[in-house]
């Protein structure tokens, strides 16, 4: 018999008076002569599904790493739930769940062990961790993989177990760098549903993605970052105007490059 699906809450615009969960002000970061982030300001309210888009190398990962306390900014401040991330990193990290860009998981553990240690490290008791691990494994379709080493997981399974670990302590803010990369379409729908329910119950998601359709569908707000600066930010409708988000993105990101001078590619080597 087909599994009955619980209705997914429609992505509503969050209450404009809801408390600010994430506040980013004047954030800057350079690597040698490369300016990765050149003064970013962002404000994200509770119950918001906030998308960050930008071309390759725009500074999205660098920004999210500074927001979550993983990379020290050269200048600027970040507060999460009123806590200064760089002033009180321990307290701030308690209320943040992170799916980083380059996953460095303890992959010699099984999925079950990784979930267990993620929960215990976040201060949850044994019974709670086991209960939540079972719930997360079901929600992410990882029940059959729980007793296998994470090192043997596929890229998509690894992404899902890392996302489950990021959520186990029910954080106020989830910061997800490319959460849908490598995730199959069915799993992506399931993960989206999980995130939408989390947001509908007052949680806040900030995610980066190259999937314009996805951002347009699930996010209520979006920021377009190009060369380390926010070029547009607001509700999806404010940012895209009369265009699609993709068209607006391409316009702001500098337009398409015409593939000239590549004639050699059409004269095959054999
Ligand atoms: N550790 C580092 N050392 C040197 N340069 C770095 C480092 N991390 C990022 N950069 C540079 O900073 C810039 C922004 O990189 P970042 O990874 O933040 O971009 P991104 O928007 O996440 O890109 P993508 O969409 O390709 O993931 C790039 O020019 C990148 O080469």
From TrEMBL:
Q: What is this protein called?
A: ABC transporter ATP-binding protein
Key words of the record: Antibiotic resistance, ATP-binding, Nucleotide-binding, Transport
Does the UniProt entry include the keyword Ligase? Answer: no
> What does the organism's lineage look like at the top?
Bacteria, Bacillati, Actinomycetota, Actinomycetes, Micrococcales
Gene Ontology cellular-component annotations? plasma membrane
Q: Which PROSITE patterns does the record match to this protein?
A: ABC_TRANSPORTER_2
UniProt GO molecular function: ATP binding; ATP hydrolysis activity
Q: State any GO BP term from the record.
A: response to antibiotic
| UniProt KW ATP-binding keyword | yes
Superkingdom as given in the UniProt entry: Bacteria
Q: Which InterPro entries match?
A: AAA+_ATPase (IPR003593), ABC_transporter-like_ATP-bd (IPR003439), ABC_transporter_ATP-binding (IPR050763), P-loop_NTPase (IPR027417)
Q: Which residues form the ABC transporter domain?
A: 22-252
Subcellular location per the Swiss-Prot or TrEMBL entry: Cell membrane
Give the principal location in a single coarse category: membrane
Q: Which organism is it from?
A: Cryobacterium cryoconiti
**How does the record classify its membrane topology?**
Peripheral membrane protein
Concerning SUPFAM superfamilies, the annotation shows: P-loop containing nucleoside triphosphate hydrolases
